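Weekly structure sync, notes
Attendees: PL (lead), two postdocs, one rotation student
Agenda item 3: pending single-chain targets
PL asked that the sequence for the first pending target be pasted directly into the notes so everyone works from the same version. It is reproduced below exactly as submitted, 686 residues in total.
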Amino acid sequence: MKEKLKLKGSLKRLAQLPVYLGVFLAVMDVLIYLIDVKAGIVGTLGLIIYILAAFAAGMYLKPLIANELVAFANQYDVLEKRIIEDLILPYAIVDLSGRMIWSNRAFSEMTGAGQLYKKNIRTIFPDFQTEKLPGNNGKQKVQEITTQFGSRVFRVSMQPVSIEEALQQTNLLEADEKSRKLVALSFFDETEMKAYIRKCEDNKTVMGLVYLDNYEEALESVEEVRRSLLTALIDRKISRYFSNFGGVVRKLEKDKYFLVMKKSSLEQLKEQKFHILEEVKTVNIGNEMAVTLSIGIGLNAPSFTQNYEYSRIAIEMALGRGGDQVVIKDEKTITYIGGTAQQVEKTTRVKARVKAQALKEFISTKDRVVVMGHKITDVDALGAAIGIYRAGKTLGKPVHIVVNDPTTSIKPLMAGYIENPDYEPSMFVDSAQARELVDHNTVVIVVDTNRPSYTECRELLNLTKTIVVLDHHRRGNEIIENAVLSYVEPYASSTCEMVAEILQYFSDGLRLRNMEADCIYAGIMIDTNNFTTRAGVRTFEAAAFLRRCGADVTRVRKMLRDNIDSYKARAEAVRTAEIYRNYFAIAICPSEGLESPTVVGAQAANELLNIAGVKASFVLTAYKDEVYISARAIDEINVQLLMEKLGGGGHLNVAGAQLKKSVDEAMRMLKDVIDEKYDEEGAAEK
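Predicted structure, written out during the meeting:
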């Protein structure tokens, strides 16, 4: 046994050091002989004694050193095992399927499972995701996950371990490649740290702005002697509501408030769906009009200044979407709560006059005007563009309207301008031509949409700095942010209504021609479904103005008539409609053989609302590898909120969405959204 144990490596070189030293002494002894023979003889005797002593010590100590090293190695191996066994950190080894192999004492004490527990680790940690173990997910590096045991939260460090070498040194076992891999799990208790992080998160400062949407209108509807009382009651209700959640409210102006509170309070308010939106409507001392609130909240910004900026953006979005709702904005996301009430139409036209003068100034200072609507231009977008065309021509500016693929609904309207000597051949251009026209001396006016991705040619927004937005749709997460003038009024029935008002204040020399008035009038008719939906006082006033300008109802009706194929498709959609959950009519509109199937789908959605008991209608139309959903409602259902969950938007009772899915997938997604909304309302009633 002693002969088999040999030193090697650094220890062997250390053992050979006396040999090298003996050689050195022999050389020195020779040099001494050259100097003095007697001294050399003495050196030789000393060298012989050194060699004999070194040899004897080597022969005697070598086996002792080897045995001591073997004993130390054995003791070190036992010590290493004991260290892991007694490690205060819970430690376990599992295979790639999650089956327990071994665990230390700390793990056993923590979980109550024995050290030889052989079941799957998910029996102890139900939320443990074994598919994330190194080796299962294609990664061999250390991975980390979070799991929970009882009330404790653990960060688990997963270290891949291979038993390849151990299997090679034994003839008793063999295993496939997967079985040769194990995973060592180290559990770090982060319960307290998570609690502190949560506490820190809950104590973050949240800033908000609270606006009364219809303050002036509500005051006008009550007796003058009671107006101060109405204001005091509203102030008291708002202050008390937020103070109950630890918030501080300070009045900035007669109809504006500044709000500061903790993030934890915000979470409670979100759970209650900001009940203040409904509570403030109950304030009634004889006022005919209920007061509504809009709230904009900013949070999770790196500074208080940025939080306030977020809240300002949020309140603008809340007002732009019609008011009576809460918009919560942080760095990455925007959340909408409320928005179930129809925005009250304002009686004053001051805003329209101001916007008209601003639009006139922007057009006057530029060389050219380019107008574009949304993709698949409809009658409202075309009518609004025609109105802007007349405004630009009144100022002597060349005006171009971007229309890529005219649909059957707008071709009859465009026919009156194409090859008409009174209008330039370049009046209508496509996206390629528009890109060549637009430069920094061009004003680009976007009508009937406020989303850059929905415009006919998005690139135009990057080619000029002068952008004007005119729209009647509620704002969503995506907006045209660099507009120099943005006139978005969700109360308006159509963009044509807004343009008709602007034209009345634009210039004294502006005169609409008959066919131009017909187009704008047609846009109002289509979006109001012949003045039956969303038609207010100002809608009829705009229609009256257009009638005075020469719009003819009979002429418009003839231009808007459908061909037989479109009529049959619409009838087929109505015939095959499904009544879902008693109140929702869902249909699929056939698109084969139709030039503008999306228009037919929208018409079918309007038709379905005439069925008794139907609160909302949805028509799905497949067109150009996308599914277009047209959503309509009368008053009880907010289809805008439903469509926003599918990536679309619109109004409370007129909305839509576009999905790059199959019709079946789109149908399933739509029903899921309806189910979610239906269940939420049922839970709220309970």
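Discussion points:
- The chain is about 40% helix and 20% strand.
- Residues 182 and 386 are 72 Å apart (CA to CA).
Action: rotation student to compare against the earlier draft before next sync.
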